From TrEMBL:
<keyword id="KW-0812">Transmembrane</keyword>
<dbReference type="GO" id="GO:0045039">
    <property type="term" value="P:protein insertion into mitochondrial inner membrane"/>
</dbReference>
<dbReference type="GO" id="GO:0005744">
    <property type="term" value="C:TIM23 mitochondrial import inner membrane translocase complex"/>
</dbReference>
<keyword id="KW-1133">Transmembrane helix</keyword>
<feature type="transmembrane region" description="Helical">
    <location>
        <begin position="12"/>
        <end position="31"/>
    </location>
</feature>
<dbReference type="Pfam" id="PF10247">
    <property type="entry name" value="Romo1"/>
</dbReference>
<protein>
    <recommendedName>
        <fullName>Reactive oxygen species modulator 1</fullName>
    </recommendedName>
</protein>
<dbReference type="GO" id="GO:0030150">
    <property type="term" value="P:protein import into mitochondrial matrix"/>
</dbReference>
<feature type="transmembrane region" description="Helical">
    <location>
        <begin position="51"/>
        <end position="70"/>
    </location>
</feature>
<comment type="similarity">
    <text>Belongs to the MGR2 family.</text>
</comment>
<dbReference type="InterPro" id="IPR018450">
    <property type="entry name" value="Romo1/Mgr2"/>
</dbReference>
<keyword id="KW-0472">Membrane</keyword>
Protein backbone atom coordinates (compact mmCIF):
# COMPACT_ATOMS: atom_id res chain seq x y z
CA UNK A 1 0.00 0.00 0.00
CA UNK A 2 2.84 2.41 0.75
CA UNK A 3 4.30 2.09 -2.73
CA UNK A 4 0.98 2.59 -4.48
CA UNK A 5 0.15 5.68 -2.51
CA UNK A 6 3.60 7.07 -3.22
CA UNK A 7 3.21 6.50 -6.96
CA UNK A 8 -0.23 8.12 -6.81
CA UNK A 9 1.20 11.14 -4.97
CA UNK A 10 4.02 11.59 -7.46
CA UNK A 11 1.63 11.21 -10.41
CA UNK A 12 -0.72 13.76 -8.88
CA UNK A 13 2.22 16.11 -8.30
CA UNK A 14 3.31 15.85 -11.92
CA UNK A 15 -0.25 16.43 -13.13
CA UNK A 16 -0.83 19.46 -10.93
CA UNK A 17 2.59 20.87 -11.78
CA UNK A 18 1.94 20.40 -15.48
CA UNK A 19 -1.43 22.12 -15.26
CA UNK A 20 -0.10 25.08 -13.30
CA UNK A 21 2.99 25.33 -15.48
CA UNK A 22 0.92 25.17 -18.64
CA UNK A 23 -1.35 27.96 -17.47
CA UNK A 24 1.55 30.17 -16.43
CA UNK A 25 3.43 29.37 -19.63
CA UNK A 26 0.44 30.23 -21.81
CA UNK A 27 -0.01 33.60 -20.13
CA UNK A 28 3.70 34.40 -20.18
CA UNK A 29 4.13 33.18 -23.77
CA UNK A 30 1.24 35.32 -24.95
CA UNK A 31 2.64 38.35 -23.17
CA UNK A 32 6.11 37.84 -24.63
CA UNK A 33 4.78 37.20 -28.15
CA UNK A 34 2.85 40.47 -28.09
CA UNK A 35 5.69 42.34 -26.42
CA UNK A 36 8.31 41.28 -28.98
CA UNK A 37 5.84 41.59 -31.89
CA UNK A 38 6.31 38.01 -33.11
CA UNK A 39 4.82 37.90 -36.63
CA UNK A 40 1.79 35.88 -37.75
CA UNK A 41 1.58 32.18 -37.08
CA UNK A 42 4.94 32.19 -35.31
CA UNK A 43 3.03 33.59 -32.31
CA UNK A 44 1.17 30.29 -31.97
CA UNK A 45 4.41 28.34 -32.18
CA UNK A 46 6.08 30.61 -29.63
CA UNK A 47 3.16 30.38 -27.21
CA UNK A 48 3.05 26.59 -27.62
CA UNK A 49 6.75 26.19 -26.95
CA UNK A 50 6.55 28.38 -23.87
CA UNK A 51 3.49 26.53 -22.59
CA UNK A 52 4.96 23.06 -23.05
CA UNK A 53 8.35 24.02 -21.67
CA UNK A 54 6.88 25.62 -18.59
CA UNK A 55 4.49 22.70 -18.02
CA UNK A 56 7.36 20.20 -18.28
CA UNK A 57 9.59 22.09 -15.85
CA UNK A 58 6.85 22.72 -13.28
CA UNK A 59 5.67 19.12 -13.55
CA UNK A 60 9.19 17.79 -13.13
CA UNK A 61 9.90 19.83 -10.04
CA UNK A 62 6.55 19.23 -8.37
CA UNK A 63 6.85 15.50 -9.10
CA UNK A 64 10.36 15.42 -7.65
CA UNK A 65 9.17 17.31 -4.58
CA UNK A 66 6.33 14.84 -4.14
CA UNK A 67 8.78 11.96 -4.44
CA UNK A 68 11.08 13.45 -1.82
CA UNK A 69 8.15 14.17 0.46
CA UNK A 70 6.81 10.64 -0.02
CA UNK A 71 9.67 9.08 1.92
CA UNK A 72 9.01 11.16 5.05
CA UNK A 73 6.59 9.99 7.70
CA UNK A 74 5.04 12.51 10.03
Amino acid sequence: MGRDSCVARVTAGVAVGGAVGGAVGAVYGTYEAVRFKVPGLLKIRYIGQTTLGSAAIFGLFLGAGSLIHCGKSY
